[in-house]
Amino acid sequence: MTSTSHFPVGSETGDQRFRIGVDIGGTFTDGTLVDSVTGEVTTSKVLSTPSNPASGFISAVQKLLSVDSVDPAAIEHVVHATTVATNAIIEGKTAKTAFVTTEGFRDMLEIARQIRPSLYDLQFEKPAPLVPRQLCFEVPERLNAKGEVVTPLDESALAQLVEQIAESEIEAVAVCLLHSYRNPDHERRVGETIAAKLPKVIISLSSDVVPEFREYLRASTTVINSSVAPIVSTYLSSISDQLVAENVTSELLVMQSSGGVYPAKAASENPVFMVESGPAAGAVAAASLGSSLGYPNVISFDMGGTTAKASLIRNGQPNITKDYSVGGAAQSGTGAFGGASGYPIRTPVVDLVEIGAGGGSIAWVDSGGALRVGPHSAGADPGPVCYGLGGRQPTITDANLVLGRLDPDYFAGGEMKLDREAAYAAIRTHCAEPLGLSVEGAAHGIVEIANTAMVNALRLVSVQRGHDPRDFMLIGFGGAGPAHTVRLAEQAGIPKVLIPLGPGTASALGLLVTDVRMEGSATLIARADQVDLAKISSEFERLESLGREAHHQAASASGEPEFERAVEMRYWGQSFELSVPVPKRDSIDQHWMDELTESFHEAHETAYGFRANDEPVELVNLRLTTVGKIARPKMRKLANVDSDPSSSIKGFRQVYFASETGDRGMIDSTVYDRSLLPAGAVFTGPAIVEEPDCTTVIHPEWKVTVDQFGNLSIEH
Predict the structure, then answer these.
(1) Which of 79, 148, 259, 499 has a beta carbon 3.0–4.6 Å from 511's, enabling a disulfide?
(2) How far, in Å, CA of 585 to CA of 341, rounded?
(3) Which CATH number fits domain 277-356+450-510: 3.40.50.300, 3.30.1490.20, 3.30.420.40, 3.40.640.10?
(4) Torsion of CA 386, 391, 393, 395, to 10 degrees
């Protein structure tokens, strides 16, 4: 499926230049081609290929290049978001990895942490370490917390250790020595010795990956980096080779978990920064769109075929956290997915809540006779029953089709025909008959159960973070999102909804509205009233030097880099810290420190509801983000302006609706062709707005206004 719209506009030069973004989801792979000169946007959507994600990627690119016969030489860069690293961890298909640590700490990965995701769950089992004990090795050496040598590195023992590793036929090595964040000399010597013996093995040093205190978290992050590096490197090399085969020789960039992008070479070396690259793209798209329209405070809601993601954007920026885990059970605690389940990673990530509710989520009746939806998904293979690709279990997409919300002849722009009779029969057999309901009633129950779970996700990123959802606008996108967004806003108390143009491929467009970002950090651990300010200044200057060097190696970043400084702080004696942007002052002096401390008190009050002005404050880590600006697309106004939407009416059909006051049943609803809707058009629900990559459902008592850029602004 391909479609064309006019979301962004680039420079006004006469030469042809394009940018491509590709986002691989669990069900569909979305592609976006932006003409940097005219601002025209072309999108493509193909079924994902889970067995070989690169195949779906290149299919989406080929589809984009075939439109208007785009010259591959005119592509400025290709940006990619992928879950290949996450999938490798979840599926237990990581590379065979060895772990090297200080003598006495071999069982660090096994012991892990004492916290658990469910305090009273007696059946809870920790995930198995990514590195089995027989591949964990110790080397005699020791540094103290200041980085001073207590026990010198034993070179002869190191040589024997390397021989043992060589006999293990491993693909990667993770090295994490005690206090190497203070002094990396021993770690580098271990890395050099292993590399000399095993030049083809990928080696990750904790002092390079995440030079911060907390040994287990640093070790876990480094192990994950090593264990997925061979897989990610092979995957990105395959994509690069296939792009070259299509004569696309421009730079390949990869979306990071934090919402920035970095070169494919850097992603191959440090893939831990892209573990959650897919979900981040949607939040970045929502932040960019909201800011462009004058709404810096929005909640992003991205519902695809497999999962739904919610993220809160405040002052135009998604919240960034470092407290998250990957590969465990779905959680809804602090951080992206709860900090206690799975394998912890200490790299920046967009703070979001992800739940197993997508168009392909399977509906089923449990042993107690209750209707359940998800977390299992039909995905792309075999997909929902209505796809006719072998699916047998009813899904949310099947329910929406039975309720009349989807047109069986206009799915994916008409490229896919949906089988309504098969969906009807599946819901009747698996849900309606066991529950004694009508098929429509069961289908509505499936949708409402999924909606309830998604409303909870919206509340987790807003109310649980101390924000009133009524103060935010809800931006809905993803292939399945606009079919549910209005109902979610109704239940969550959010007064305004916005559906962008091309919502089904908005995440792919989000790849093209971000900058090259590279993260650096250094552990300090000093009280604010005792810290050496010159030390802070010198550390930031060192990080800037490293960031500037990395920036100049990124072909897509032009001009001088910009630097974003932050300090992670806590009250003295606390276990966890908050990230606070530094004051915008020319020099680091006492005024700078006073202002920083006040900012921390305010951040603590926002996060936890109180501040302790008399308690000493501790500076823990210095963080520096190097930003390489990339020219980003801008909004362009629609040429057609008319308040009357009648010319865009495709027809009418019966659609099932319900409200808080009762079941409305099937209602005659107007169906609009979104591509024909003029700017300024106003209409009310019940209505359906169709476009090639998704369908928007407008519930009764909600009013739609098409803004000057073609976005659907929906209010109760």
Answers:
(1) 79
(2) 40
(3) 3.30.420.40
(4) -50
pLDDT at 35: 78
Tokens of 585: 């002052």
Could you say which of 1.50.10.10, 1.10.565.10, 3.40.1360.10, 3.30.420.40 is the CATH number of the domain covering 2-88+233-274? 3.30.420.40
Determine contact, residues 323/576, Cβ cutoff 8 Å. yes
User: Boundaries of CATH 3.30.420.40 in the chain?
Assistant: 2-88+233-274, 277-356+450-510
Is the N-terminal amide bond of 199 cis, ω within 30° of 0? no
- The pLDDT value recorded for residue 39 is 67
For the chain, residues with pLDDT lower than 70 are: 1-15, 26-27, 38-39, 68, 327-341, 380, 554-558, 633-635, 659-664
Q: Dihedral angle at the C-alpha atoms of 183, 186, 188, 189, nearest 10 degrees?
A: 150
Rg (the chain; Cα; Å) = 26
Kindly report whether the global pTM for this prediction surpasses the value 0.85.
no
Q: Does domain 516-628 have CATH number 3.30.1490?
A: yes
Going by C-alpha positions, the residue among 229, 187, 192, 226 that lies closest to residue 207 is 187
Question: How long is the chain?
Answer: 716
Query: Quick count: other Cβ atoms within 10 Å of Cβ 606?
Result: 14
65-108 pLDDT, tens digit each: 887 688 888 898 899 988 788 878 877 889 999 999 999 999 99
DSSP string, 230-244: HHHHHHHHHHHHHHH
DSSP state of 614: T
**Where do you find CATH 3.30.1490 in the chain?**
516-628
Cα(37)–Cα(17) distance, integer angstroms = 7
DSSP letters, 465-529, are GT--GGGSEEEEESSSGGGTHHHHHHHHT--EEEE-SSGGGHHHHHTTS--EEEEEEEEEEEETT
Q: CA 44 to CA 353: how far, in whole Å? A: 27
CB neighbour list of residue 244: distance below 8 Å, 6 or more residues apart: none
The stretches of 8-51 forming alpha helices (DSSP H) are none
pLDDT at 13: 38
The neighbour count for residue 690, using CB atoms within 10 Å, is 18
